[in-house]
Structure formats: structure tokens, C-alpha cells
Write a structure and sequence with these properties.
- The structure holds two protein chains of two kinds.
- In chain A, about 40% of the residues lie in helices and about 15% in strands.
- Chain A is an alpha/beta fold.
- Chain A has two domains: about 260 residues, Aldehyde Dehydrogenase, Chain A, domain 1 (3-Layer(aba) Sandwich); about 180 residues, Aldehyde Dehydrogenase, Chain A, domain 2.
- In chain A, the strands form five sheets. In chain A, strands 14-15-16-13-12-17-18 form a seven-stranded mixed sheet, sandwiched between helices. In chain A, strands 9-8-7-10-11-19 form a six-stranded mixed sheet, sandwiched between helices.
- The termini of chain A are far apart.
- By secondary structure, chain B is an alpha/beta fold.
- Chain B has a single domain, classed as Aldehyde Dehydrogenase, Chain A, domain 1, CATH 3.40.605.
- Chain B has ten helices and ten strands.
- Chain B has a five-stranded parallel sheet with strand order 7-6-5-8-9, sandwiched between helices.
- In chain B, helix 4 runs parallel beside helix 6.
- Classes of the chains: A alpha/beta, B alpha/beta.
- Chains A and B meet through helix 8, strand 18 and strand 19 of A and strand 4, helix 9 and strand 10 of B.
């Protein structure tokens, strides 16, 4: 039995969630017009990032597949979905929400296997929030005229949706639930490295007897995504992912009539004042950057600590980090799982090495990483300046850059000194200061004395180069409706 | 016997609350509706566009930091001052566009009324577009609109009503802007600048450029310190496409070309297009 590495670490026996609850098929086709069909093009493998085990062979949709899916979506839109009453659409969405809840354990295990995230998170956050999102938007489907978006809001048509690998099922829910509630049909592409829960969701659509073509799932990589975005019969593009791809999408749709929402990168400041409840702040910092291995666009990746409290904050943070358990995503005691892919691991390593080379101080708790799979220890960099690349670029991994400030104004300046504007955190016991800070931060979501909280009723989305449009809440409907008065 | 010679006005730009000539020293001929010489207008350059963005950025924090009530009062003041100078505007519209006296009156009426309409929105738009969000947990959670930042606007034809219809909704919510006036009818835009300059509107909140849209707009569309782009007045679809493409570099919020009937009351779209939604969370507990 390994000995405890420090006085704060408990011993844990392995507590793996049973994998037998999921049935991964050796290969998967595309979900078009209500059926699984073989792709016309190539296929690719999806692997478990924690073991590098090949999980399944998945079809890579080509242009002809995309065209078939868009045609199916258009047919379903014209003939069925846009004509159906909101009340009936609503009931389909409630059904889907319920089936996700019924099959929650299956979704959670599959998500952790394919994505590498800890089962504690997939079970308690990703899957319940995905179900909640369908439940929330189900209720909107027959109330759209009360949404304040005009007296007779109309659906846009066929929505092309491309989602990332960090919250595969949850991002699917964020995209599909509002689109369907508003009367649109969808063609959705899950990320290349995490296709399995989207394919399981296709089964949910079948179980719900959702009319064929209302939801089409196309697996693939960048080429497939580009074909969906560029397809002339797609009316609406919704994308979550990197700012670089977001820019390319904005260029592609220029001059067309397509409407677009983009949820892109971030480099959020998590600002801790000297009057903050310090243990809560430490938990918030840990949640902010190590939740989901830091694969979170709104991650609190820049810690701004007020100088007078920085030293104590850092020592408590390090002590807390030493208790984080890294390892098997299916183990219920795991806090930090596997990095999603070899490619992402290489990027995190590269930027961390640059951080060191540029003179920042690197620290990770002593921890043994598994010998197979993709792993990166929770890491902090101290002595970071605003010019350092690790303070400017999105690392999208469990890497925190620590900067300090003296006055609230300096904190605001440093927090806003980024082309991104997705989220920010404030820790202080003083209400007036919290509200003033919240008003000054140029970010779409501000968490005060908390971090990384999500809810279907709460609008989410960025300022500046973090994209445009909102997902969640009444605001999320605007992305999928036309008020007929452009 | 001597007849008095008119004192003609030099038509300049309106940048940062001042009326400079184009730094390029260029001007272009503006004709009246019958094709006769009316005046030389300043022909703004890339440098003028950049100066205007700088002025708009400098004004943003102060203007967006004003209370909504105060912004509403300033926009209302623009309407008051415009009303007081209506005869000058009617005369300008008639000579520039060759329209009848009654038509000119209609446009000035509509422009004044539009300013009044938007002025009233200043302290109401947050109530209409914001929300209290019932999240599943012990959190206070609300969403409210905030201005996008610096917005570049290509104004449509309609020297007065066109300009007012695109500028008022952008600034009343706290944005600042750089607007390229209608190319064939730029003079009234500068006269409106004089109205704004005497209406307690802080310098830099509205900056007016006159000149070639095809020349100036690309600099604004690609400017990294511009956050929004309103292409309402861009007639050439190919130019509109390339401007939208350039705007993608820093993910500007783009309003595509397309003009509603200006005499019909607008909806909220011209305001909401250049608003961001900020959601704030705070735990509740003892």
C-alpha cells in the first residue's frame, strides 16, 4: 500500500463505478432521418483517454452525408416540426429529459469513459444539467409568444450545430434543447474525440419517438463541421469551441443570411480580495481551474490575488491541491481525471514549458500519474506577469497563472486586459465592492463568491472575442427565433 | 450699391467633440439634387477613421458609466436642440434631396420623434431585456444588458432621419460610435454633429466621418478596437460581405445591410444588436 505523501491526504480504497452498465458497440454509423446509417466516407477510432483503449470505430461524415442530413432536417422542419403545436413539441422535449434521467447512469459512465472526466462530475453535473436543460426548454416550447421576442416569434429553420469535447452531452443539450423548443430542426456534430454520448442520445431520440429528421447526429472532425457550417440550406449556425474556429465560421457565413451564435475561448480572472472568506476562496479557485481538468472555456485560469493576502492564499491553495486525487475517471473518489487527448496534452505541456521558460515559477503537488493514458498534474505558476503567454493564452488544462494586485482598479484593469470576455470571479465579503467589481468586469458571466456554476435558467456567453449570443434562460431563445422584424 | 456676400460654411468632420478637417487635406464635391455645386465636404482618410475610433474608445467608459437616466436626458436634449433648429434642417434636406417642404418637415418631425422615443428607452431597456433567473440552488442570479463598446456604423441614405435612426439606438444604451455619413448627402450629418456638440453629449460619443464608404469602412471593419459593425447603409453586397469577413477577426457583432421603412417605428433590434448580456451569481446564505 502506498504511503501517504503528506499529512493531509487520506487513503482511499478503489471505488470504481461499474462499467457494465454501458454497451459500447464496435462501430457506429451516422444518425440521419431517425436511423443509424453507414457513412459514405472514412471512419475513425474513439479512444478512452485514461487508458488509450480503442472504444469504437465511428463514421466520419463527408459532404454527401452532411447533405443527406440537412435534407432530412429540412424535410422534418417543413413537414412536421415547424407545423407542430408548441405544446406537442414541448411534450417530446419533456420525454427526452425524462429518458436522460432514466438512463443517467449509463450516460455518466459512457461520458467518463470517452471523455476522461471524473464520474463524480459526469454523474453529478454533466448529466443532471443536460436533463435539466431539456426540462427547462421543454416548458418554453408552448410559451414563446411570452418571451419578449415579438408577438409571433418564428423558428429559423435548420440549425447546424458543432460542439466541443469538454462537456459532450451537456453541450449537446445546450444546443439541441432550445433549437427544438423554438421549432427548428438540427444537424449536430459532436467532437471528434467524444462522439459516444451523442450517439447514445440518438437512441434516446428513437426511444422518445421523436419524428425522423428532427435531430440528426453526424460524427466527424473539422471537415465535417466545415461542411455543416457552409451548407447553403443551413439557416442557423451554433458553435462552441475555440476562438480560432469561431473566427473561421464568422468568415464563412459573411454575406449570407445565416444567423450565428458563437461560444468561444476564455481567460477568466478569479479575483481574491483580502477580506474574502479564504477557505471558500480556495475551494472556488480549485473549482475554477481544476474542475473538468481545466477543460472549461470559462475556467478561472488567472488568479488575481490581492498582495496583502497572496502569500497565505497560495500556501492554503497548495495544501488543498495536495489533497486532489488524480486517476481513474470511473473511480468515485477521483477529483481530476484524464486530459482528453494526446493533442490537448501536448498543447498543455507546450504552454507550461513556455511559462517556465518565460520565468514563472511552476509548482505541482507530488502525485503519481497512471502509466497509460493522457495525464497532467494540477499546476500553478507564480510570479506571472501580464506579458507572459500563460497569462494571455487559453491553456484549456489544469494550469493556473497567479498574478497579484493592490487596488480594486488595478484588479479590474488586469482582469479586463485580455481579448476574451467570457467569465470572471470575485471573492470579497464587502457587498458594495462585489457589485462595483461585477459592473466593471467585461465578461458575460460573473461569479461572486462562487465559481463555475451553471443552470439552464441562467444565460451564458461572452463579451469580445469569447463570442456572441447567449445560451440558457430566456436569452437562449433569441438564438433560435426570428422576430420577423429584422 | 453693394449686396452682401454670403459667408459660406466649411464642412468638416466631427471627431472627439471637435470639428477638424480631414488630416489628409482632401475634400469632395457635393452637389444638390439638381446636380449643381453645393459644397466641398471633407473626405475622411484611414487616419481620420483611426482618430475617430480612439475618441470613441476614450469616451466609452465615461458614457457607459453615466446613469441610464442621464443618458436618456442627453439624448432627449439632442431632440430639443434639433427641434429648435428645424428650419435649417428642412432647408438643408430640400436642397440636398430636392424634396418638397412638407416632405422635409415630415423627415425632421420623424427624426426628432425618434430621438425622443429612444431617449425614453435608456432606463427601460434593462428591464425589458434583463431577467431574474430562478436557478436550482441557493443563488441570487440576474442578467442585465451592457453596451458592447465602440460601434462603427455605415449610415443609410436619408441625411437626417437615416443618421438619427442608426445612431440614437446605439448610443442611448451606452455605446459610443463612429458613423460614416451617407456618401452623397454628407452635409446634414455634420450639421447634426453641431446639434450633438451643443446638447451635452460628451465629445467622442458620436464621431461623424464624411467621404467614401468603400475607402473608410474597411479600416473600421478591421479595426481591433471596434466591437460592433452596423452595415445598414452598405448598398454593395460584395462590399458588405468583405466588411463582415474583416469584422470576424475580433468577432465584432455585425448588423447586416437592410433598411426598414424609416418612417415606420422601429423595434428593439437596433439596440439589442449592440448589447451584451451579463449574468451575475452570488450565493445566498446566513
Amino acid at each position: 500500500m502506498p504511503t501517504s505523501k503528506n499529512a493531509f491526504e487520506f487513503e482511499y480504497a478503489p471505488a470504481p463505478e461499474a462499467r457494465s452498465v454501458v454497451d459500447i458497440r464496435p462501430s457506429y454509423g451516422l444518425f440521419i432521418d431517425g436511423e443509424f446509417v453507414d457513412g459514405r466516407g472514412r471512419s475513425f477510432k474513439t479512444i478512452s483517454p485514461s487508458t488509450e483503449e480503442v472504444l469504437a470505430e465511428v463514421a466520419e461524415a463527408d459532404e454527401a452525408d452532411v447533405d443527406a442530413a440537412v435534407k432530412a432536417a429540412r424535410r422534418a422542419y417543413t413537414r412536421v416540426w415547424s407545423r407542430m403545436s408548441g405544446a406537442e413539441r414541448s411534450k417530446y422535449l419533456f420525454r427526452i429529459a425524462r429518458i436522460i434521467q432514466e438512463r443517467a447512469r449509463e450516460f455518466a459512465v459512457l461520458e467518463s469513459i470517452d471523455n476522461g472526466k471524473p464520474i463524480r462530475e459526469s454523474r453529478d453535473i454533466d448529466v443532471p444539467l443536460a436533463a435539466a436543460h431539456f426540462f427547462y426548454y421543454a416548458g418554453w416550447a408552448d410559451k414563446l409568444e411570452y418571451a419578449g421576442l415579438g408577438p409571433t416569434p418564428q423558428p429559423l429553420g435548420v440549425a447546424g450545430q458543432v460542439i466541443p469535447w469538454n462537456f459532450p452531452l451537456l453541450m449537446l443539450a445546450w444546443k439541441i434543447a432550445p433549437a427544438l423548443a423554438c421549432g427548428n430542426t438540427v444537424v449536430l456534430k459532436p467532437a471528434e474525440t467524444t462522439p459516444l454520448t451523442a450517439l447514445l442520445f440518438a437512441e434516446v431520440c428513437q426511444q422518445a419517438d421523436l419524428p425522423p429528421g428532427v435531430v440528426n447526429i453526424l460524427t466527424g472532425a473539422g471537415e465535417t463541421g466545415r461542411a455543416i457550417v457552409a451548407h447553403p440550406d443551413v439557416d442557423k449556425v451554433a458553435f462552441t469551441g475555440s476562438t480560432e474556429v469561431g473566427r473561421a465560421i464568422a468568415r464563412t457565413v459573411a454575406g449570407s443570411t445565416k444567423s450565428v451564435t458563437l461560444e468561444l475561448g476564455g481567460k477568466a480572472a478569479n479575483i481574491v480580495f483580502d477580506d474574502a472568506p479564504i477557505d471558500q476562496a480556495v475551494e472556488g479557485i480549485v473549482d475554477g481551474i481544476f474542475f473538468n481538468q481545466g477543460h472549461v472555456c470559462c475556467a478561472g485560469s488567472r488568479l488575481l490575488a490581492q498582495e496583502s493576502v497572496a502569500e497565505e492564499l497560495l500556501s492554503r491553495l497548495k495544501r488543498r491541491m495536495a489533497t486532489l486525487r488524480i486517476g481513474d475517471p470511473l473511480d468515485k473518489n477521483t477529483d481530476v481525471g484524464a486530459i482528453n487527448s494526446a493533442e490537448q496534452l501536448a498543447k498543455i505541456r507546450e504552454l507550461s514549458d513556455i511559462g517556465e521558460a518565460e520565468g514563472a515559477g511552476r509548482w505541482s503537488p507530488a502525485c503519481e500519474l497512471p502509466s497509460h493514458g493522457f495525464w497532467f498534474p494540477p499546476t500553478i505558476f507564480t510570479g506571472v506577469t501580464q506579458a507572459h503567454r500563460i497569462a494571455r493564452e487559453e491553456i484549456f488544462g489544469p494550469v493556473l497563472s497567479v498574478l497579484t494586485f493592490r487596488t480594486p482598479k488595478e484588479a479590474v484593469e488586469k482582469a479586463n486586459n485580455t481579448p476574451f470576455g467570457l467569465s470572471a470571479g470575485i471573492w470579497s465579503d464587502k457587498g458594495s465592492r462585489v457589485l462595483w467589481m461585477a459592473s466593471q468586469l467585461r465578461a458575460g458571466v460573473v461569479w461572486s463568491n462562487t465559481f463555475n456554476k451553471f443552470d439552464p435558467a441562467s444565460p451564458f456567453g461572452g463579451y469580445k472575442e469569447s463570442g456572441y449570443g447567449r445560451e440558457g434562460g430566456r436569452h437562449g431563445l433569441a438564438a433560435y427565433l426570428s422576430n420577423g422584424a429584422h | 450699391m453693394s449686396t452682401r456676400l454670403d459667408v459660406r460654411k466649411t464642412w468638416k468632420l466631427y471627431i472627439g467633440g471637435q470639428f477638424p478637417r480631414s488630416e489628409s487635406g482632401r475634400s469632395y464635391v457635393v452637389n444638390d439634387a439638381k446636380g449643381a455645386f453645393l459644397a466641398n465636404a471633407s473626405q475622411a482618410s484611414r487616419k481620420d477613421a483611426r482618430d475617430a475610433v480612439k475618441a470613441a474608445r476614450a469616451a466609452f467608459s465615461g458614457w457607459s458609466g453615466r446613469t441610464a437616466y442621464n443618458r436618456g436626458q442627453v439624448v432627449y436634449r439632442i431632440a430639443e436642440v434639433l427641434e429648435g433648429r428645424r428650419e435649417q434642417f428642412e432647408a438643408e434636406l430640400r436642397s440636398a434631396e430636392g424634396i418638397s417642404a412638407s416632405k422635409a418637415r415630415t423627415y425632421v418631425d420623424a427624426a426628432v420623434d425618434r430621438l425622443v422615443w429612444y431617449a425614453g428607452w435608456a432606463d427601460k431597456i434593462a428591464q425589458v431585456t434583463g431577467s431574474a433567473n430562478a436557478v436550482a440552488g441557493p443563488y441570487f442570479n440576474h442578467s442585465a444588458p451592457e453596451p458592447t463598446g465602440v460601434v462603427a456604423i455605415v449610415a443609410p441614405r436619408g441625411p437626417l432621419l437615416g443618421l438619427v435612426s442608426v445612431v440614437a439606438p446605439v448610443i442611448v444604451t451606452g455605446n459610443t460610435c463612429v458613423v460614416i455619413a451617407s456618401e452623397p448627402h454628407p452635409l446634414t450629418a455634420i450639421t447634426l454633429g453641431e446639434v450633438m456638440a451643443t446638447s451635452d453629449l460628451p465629445g467622442g460619443v458620436v464621431n461623424v466621418l464624411t467621404g467614401s464608404v468603400a475607402e473608410i469602412a474597411p479600416w473600421l471593419a478591421s479595426h481591433m478596437d471596434v466591437n460592433g459593425l452596423d452595415l445598414t447603409g452598405v448598398g454593395d453586397p460584395e462590399l458588405a460581405r468583405s466588411l463582415e469577413e474583416a469584422a470576424a477577426e475580433n468577432l465584432k457583432r455585425v448588423r447586416r445591410p437592410g433598411l426598414e421603412d424609416l418612417l415606420v417605428g422601429p423595434g428593439l433590434d437596433r439596440m439589442t444588436r449592440f448589447l451584451e448580456t451579463k449574468t451575475v451569481w452570488h450565493p445566498m446564505g446566513l
